[in-house]
Amino acid sequence: MLDVVELHASHGRIPALHGISMTLARGETACLIGANGAGKTTTLRTIAGVHPADSGDIFLDGNNINRLPAHRRVREGISLVPEGRGVFAQLTVDENLRLGAYTRDSGIDEDRERVLELLPRIRERLGQQAGTLSGGEQQMLAIGRALLARPRLLLLDEPSMGLAPIVVEKVFEVIADVARSGVTILLVEQNAHLALEIADRAWVMESGRIALAGNAAALREDPRVREAYLGEA
Ligand code: ATP
Q: Alpha helices of the chain — where are they, by DSSP H?
């Protein structure tokens, strides 16, 4: 469903992506792992359209979306949960959730109900200011908000960041539930253990390039991955 072809992007004059190509099938969960600064966030942001591509193509179900602005890509079914979650602290939890549906005009209440079934902790806190939620709850809220755009492809940037291990586990349970509901997921994650466990397919990025690609289970056994990303000699 997602085909990224020879994607190049930069920050000012400094290139960050040197021709990234990746293919993701409908219903798959995929992850992008790699060291700090490898270009993972830039890849997600460029797919979402919040960072411009210098060249290359991005196809969603065969349609080239590379020229579409970010809000049009949301309409086409791409939803990004940004690094740091991007929750609006002063708004209530419910207001944050509903913002996810800003590109839509029907079926919102039904979808909100479905999302709340997935996120019971969020339901309990609907009237609360979002800034008062714990980090894990804010991550769940950010995921819920993204789901209210009714995505076909959900992009998640570092969902485990800054969370205690037990909370990370809960967030990943939610991500697995979302995957089971049929949403295709592309996840960027520092925690390669977790990412490779949840994913069907994975790419390892190094210095703006794809260094390794394949089935996540196979990559987990790859000596290069074990040594560099899983902390095993
Ligand atoms: P991290 O895990 O730290 O987010 P990453 O793999 O997601 O790393 P990117 O954030 O995509 O990597 O960064 C790729 C490269 O682009 C890095 O060299 C980084 O320093 C540079 N870069 C990222 N954001 C900017 C920016 N706003 N301005 C200038 N350079 C940037």
A: 40-48, 70-76, 93-99, 108-118, 120-123, 135-147, 165-180, 192-198, 216-221, 223-228
